[in-house]
Amino acid sequence: MNYVLYAVPVFFLLIGLELLADRWRGVRTYRTADAINSLSAGVLSTTCGLLTKTVGVLTYTLAWQHLGLLAPDPASPWTWVAAFVFYDFCYYWNHRLGHERNVLWAAHSVHHQSEEYNLSTALRQTSTGFIFGWIFYLPMALAGIPPLVFLTVAAMNLLYQFWVHTRHVPKLGPLEWVFITPSNHRVHHAQNPVYMDRNYGGVFILWDRLFGTFQEELDEEPVVFGVTTPLASWNPLWANLQFYAQLWQDAARARSWWDRLRIWFMRTGWRPADVAERYPLTKPDLARFRKYEVPLSPARTAYAALQFTLYLLGGSYLLAKGDGMG
C-alpha cells in the first residue's frame, strides 16, 4: 500500500489551511508560480517513481534475502521501533551526503530550490534520487529488517517531514532537543552561511547533535531560503537537470581527465581550478537578495493553474493505477 498516496488529500487540506493562516496573520509565504513549480516537481517525482522505485525495493529485497545477518520478528513492536530509529539514522547519512557530494546534491538540490518555505515545499522532491539513494539503506537489509517493515517506516518518516515545512510554527521548547521541528528545519533550507549544511535528520535531531551538524535558528539571523546557485526557472524538468548540467559542462571544460572524472564525487561546490578561473560563478549577495519572479498576467496565471490541475489529475490517476497494480 502506498501510504503517501492516501495522504495526498490531507496534504492539500493542510496547504489550504496554511494559506488561510497567511491571510489571517497578514503574511505571504506563498507565491502562485513558486507553489505550482514545487507541486509540479512533486508530481513529476512521484510519477517517475512508478518506474524507478523498483530499483531500491528490488535491491533491498535481494540483499535482505541473501545477506541478512539477523531475523528480527516482524510481529514484535520492538522490531518496528528499532527499524523506525534505524531508518532515520540511515536517512541522516543519505541526506548529509546528499549535501556534501556533487553528484548527490545534483539530485537533492531540487528540494531546496524554492525561495519560499511552506507546505508545498515539502512536496518538492527529486526525480533522480533513486540512482544512489538505495545504497544508504542496505545496512537495514543486512540487519534483517523485512522489506514490509522497511517500506512502512520509510513512509512514516516521509510523512512526518511534511509538517515541518512551515514558517507559522515557532520553536517548540524541549522538543527542539529531540525532534526535527519547523524551526530547526527552516535552518536546513537556508542559504545563509551560518545555517548551510546543518540539521539533516528526518524525524530526530539527535543525529545532528551527535555528529556536529546541528544549528539553532537565530533571532538575529533571519533565514533566506533557496540555493546559492538560483534555479531562476519555473520548469520542473529543468529543476531536476540544472546541477547535472552544470557538472557536465564543468567536466567538459576541464583540461585534466582526472578532474573530469572526480568532479562528480568531490565535495559540493568543488570545480576544477582551471574551469573556476576561466568560468567563475558569482554567488548572490544575501544583503541584496531578490527572489526570482516573472510577472504574469491574470490570463497566463489562470492558464498555468489549469495546466497544473490537469497535470495533477493525470499524475494522480497514474499513481492510483500503479498502487492498484502493486
From TrEMBL:
Fatty acid hydroxylase domain boundaries: 80-213
Subcellular location: Endomembrane system
Record keywords, A-Z: Lipid metabolism, Membrane, Oxidoreductase, Transmembrane, Transmembrane helix
Transmembrane segments: 6-24, 36-63, 75-93, 134-160
One example of a Gene Ontology biological process annotation: lipid biosynthetic process
Topological type in the membrane: Multi-pass membrane protein
Any Gene Ontology CC annotation: membrane
A Gene Ontology molecular function term of the record: iron ion binding
PANTHER family referenced in this protein's UniProt entry, alphabetically: ALKYLGLYCEROL MONOOXYGENASE (PTHR21624:SF1), STEROL DESATURASE-RELATED PROTEIN (PTHR21624)
Name under which the protein is recorded: Fatty acid hydroxylase domain-containing protein
